[in-house]
Amino acid sequence: MSKDPEGKRNRLGIMGGTFDPIHYGHLVAAEMARCEFDLSTVLFIPSGTPPHKNSQDVSAADLRYEMVALAIKDNPAFDLSALEVERKGLSYTVETLRILRRTWPEHELYFITGTDALLEIFSWREAEEILTMIQFIGAARPGFDASDFLLKVEQEHPETQEKIHYLEVPALAISSTDIRLRVRHGQPIRYLLPEPVRIFIQQHGLYVTE
Ligand code: NAP
Q1: Whose CA is nearest to atom 11 of ligand 1?
Q2: The Cytidyltransferase-like domain covers which part of the protein (predicted)?
């Protein structure tokens, strides 16, 4: 079904991230975005090979994918895509969005990601094309100051202003970097992420060494 009973276009949330590992901050951000922007589904798309990272610094894509599957399985409004994990080469967002545009032609697409990633959007491959296809939701950590970025958008890319939204997500005080460091230093990570994901990390010996 592509339209709701009032005839509005349905909205699909696309949750893009490396998710190394996924944690409660991501899940709360996705759920808040779903409610705030009236998204019918949030599709999680773990990056295969992130274009802006050294691939040796990132856990294997199939492991990150499995952790996302474990984390979202009890929410019927969340779904998972292997689009980037299965694609060869670097995971350019524009290529993913072209496929999603064809798959969901009637839906409005909302790409949800962290504000740190959003700050770099204009350097992404075919950024202008991306901003014709989607609305952006930047999930911000508490205390994030968007004023410099908003000024830059207003001055340099005014046509995109209405397509970029912010969502402050207090739970994003949790970060994947912090979780990896905690594991390496033998500190607890329970309650920072779903328990099945914590057990998966333990069973696969993830993040123990640098
Ligand atoms: P990142 O640089 O690892 O993360 C930037 C910040 O945003 C981190 O603080 C991260 O926190 C947070 N974050 C990332 N994804 C999030 C999400 N979905 N919700 C809330 N916070 C999130 O960014 P990344 O994860 O590798 O990339 C984010 C998305 O941008 C991916 O879909 C990626 O493919 C896309 N991207 C595309 C291009 C391109 O096409 N050229 C370039 C860069 C990024 P945590 O570390 O706690 O997750």
Answers
A1: 175
A2: 14-181
Over the stretch 27-48, which tens digit does the pLDDT of each residue have? 999 999 999 999 999 999 999 9
CATH number at residue 122: 3.40.50.620
Helix axes 24-36, 61-72, angle to 10 degrees: 60
Q: Is residue 150 part of a domain?
A: yes
Into how many domains does the chain fold?
1
Whether the CA torsion 68, 73, 76, 80 is positive or negative: it is positive
Q: For residue 83, what are the contacts with CB-CB under 8 A and spacing of at least 6? A: 45, 96, 99, 100
Kindly report, residue by residue over 111-122, the tens digit of the pLDDT: 999 988 888 888
* 6 found inside a domain: no
The residues, ordered by sequence, that sit 6+ positions from 210 with a Cβ below 8 Å of its Cβ are 184
Which segments within 18-133 are labelled E, that is strand? 41-46, 78-80, 108-114
Range of the domain at 128: 11-173
**pTM higher than 0.85:** yes
The answer to whether the CB of 93 is under 6 A from ligand 1 is: yes
